[in-house]
Structure formats: C-alpha cells, structure tokens
Amino acid sequence: MSRLWASHSERSNTFWLWIIRTIALRLGRRAARLLLYPITLFFLIVAREQRKASRVFLSRALQRRASLWDVARHIHTFAATLVDRVYLFTDRHDRLDLRMQDRDVVLDYLKAGQPAIILGSHLGSYEVLRAIGMLRIRLPLKILMRQGHNKTITGMLNALNPDFSEMVIELGHPSASLRVHDSLKAGNFIGMLGDRAGENERVTRCTFLGKEAVFPAGPILLAHACKVPVILFFGLYRGGNRYDVFLEKFADRIELSRERREQEVQQWVQRYVDVLEKYVRLEPFNWFNFYDFWNEYSETPQPEAAQQKTAQQKTAPPETVPQDTDSR
After folding, report:
1. Nearest alpha-carbon partner for 127 in 1, 38, 7
2. In a 10 Å sphere around its CB, with 0-12 CB exposed, 13-18 middle and 19+ buried, how is residue 181 labelled?
3. If you ran DSSP here, which 8-state letter would residue 311 be given?
4. pLDDT tens digits along 119-141
5. Which residue from 80, 92, 93, 163 has the least number of CB within 10 angstroms?
6. What's the pTM value of the predicted model, to 2 decimals?
7. How far apart are CA 26 and CA 53, in angstroms?
8. Residue 171 phi, psi dihedral angles, 5° rounding
9. Strands 189-193 and 211-216, sheet pairing
C-alpha cells in the first residue's frame, strides 16, 4: 500500500476504506467510482508530501513539469485501483476487463513443473496477478510481503477474503525462509515486489528515470539462493474497468559469483529497473510510490535514505530470505 494512505491517521484511513468497501459492495462499481472525486480532492489538499512526490516523479516520467491536474489524475488512478481491489478480493472479476498478455511465459514453467519468482512493483495493481493466477491459469501462488506496515488495508482485504491470508508469507518472520523454500519445493510460485526497500534490507543503487535511486537487492538474492527462474509482472490500469497484464521472462537462472557478487547484483537489479522504467513510461499515472523516491527534498530522512549506507556493505548471504518490501 502506498505511503499516500499510510502517512495519514488510522481514523482517516479506516473511514475512507469503509466507505469505499460499503459502496462498492452494496451500490456497485459505478457509484463507488463517483466517490473517487471527493477522495482525490481530499488527498490533493491534505497530503502535502505525497503531492510533492507525485509532481517530482511525474515531471521525470512525463519529461515536462507536472501540473496540479496531473497530480490529481495520479491520485485518482491510485484510488480507482483501490476500489477495484474490493472486487478482486471478493471474486467479482466479471466487473473488470482483465487482459493477459504473453500468458505462455508462466504456462511454460507451470507445465514443466518449474516454479518461479514472479517479480512485480508498485506500478499498477499486483493484486490482478492473484485474480488471474487463481482463476484463469490455476497458478499455485504464495505472496512474500510485509503486512504489518498497513494494518488497515490488510485487515480490510483479509475480511473480504480470509483465504488471502493463507497465501501470504510474512516477511521478517523467523519461519519466512523455510516457508519460501518449502513453497517452491511444493511447486508454488512466489510473488514479490522489487521497487521499494524495507528497513534493514540490502540495497543497491540503479539509474531510474535519469537519476540514481535505491532499490532492494532481495529479489535477486532470493532467486540466486533458490535457483529458480524469474518472471516480471506488470498489471497496468488502463482506465474504465480495464487492466492489461504484462508478463516478461527475466531469467531462467540467476548465478552470482563470490568474487563479484555486489557488482553482479547491481547489474541484475539494473536490468529489472530498465524494464520497470519502460512500463512506467507507458503508464506513468500507475506509479504508486508516493514518497521522495530519489531522496531529493525531504526534511526528515525517509526509510529508503537510511538504506543508502547499507548499499556499501557486503551483500547478504544467499541462504537468507531478503527483506523485500511491504504491501501497498
């Protein structure tokens, strides 16, 4: 979940989420989408830091100075995907037009009995993967994520569909490493996000939209440790009720040498960032990292800024499950 919501009071979050859920389920998607306008206006007025972050990001992505209207559209797009999560988590997918591109990328591994890591980002809706994976291609899926950062949204989603919690492997839990390895051994695919570093996580620096930023090394280390392929996933919201799902084969195997591990991790993460940038350019208003991503202007240190110091440290051993990223 984006910091756009996490930065505000729990009472405010709970109120808006309750309104969205109630209207979406009782009055339908059209009525719920009407609510997006006051929600957008509310956050446009009160969320100063997120408004600034949106403008900085959009100016880079659009290659022009972003306007206040651009920022409003950015917030509105995020709110629209939040409404649709209600339908994704209550198995009402007929309300949405989900279009899957290159499904054979996953099906080939699935037919061969080869599990993989499906690496996504906070671009678009990662929840679409669960919907398509479970219903259309019967993909056995576990999601590696940190639920504690956004208890309000996590609680709402778990209430909508208790089965969701059964899919989650909690990052930071002592048993996370064992559960990941056991899940892969059992044929499950592991979903995770690769564009936001968590606290105390190993990171590396990559060029993104023309400037260096910090990205987690965790997904690459995990793929190396588990000796499994990596597939890139992007579920882009295209307006109305349409989502386009893009899948790209990233690597059949990631091998890291002891002598050049840090450099090789950086190179692999940069490859991921290059693909991420391609899809960001395609749908910039789908980017849901509403914080100072490049650490350019914040008066107080962001969690990611603190991670810059660890980028110079020795890369974590591959046997551990890296602390990847939080839920949105």
Report:
1. 1
2. middle
3. G
4. 999 999 988 887 777 666 788 99
5. 163
6. 0.84
7. 34
8. -65, 140
9. unpaired
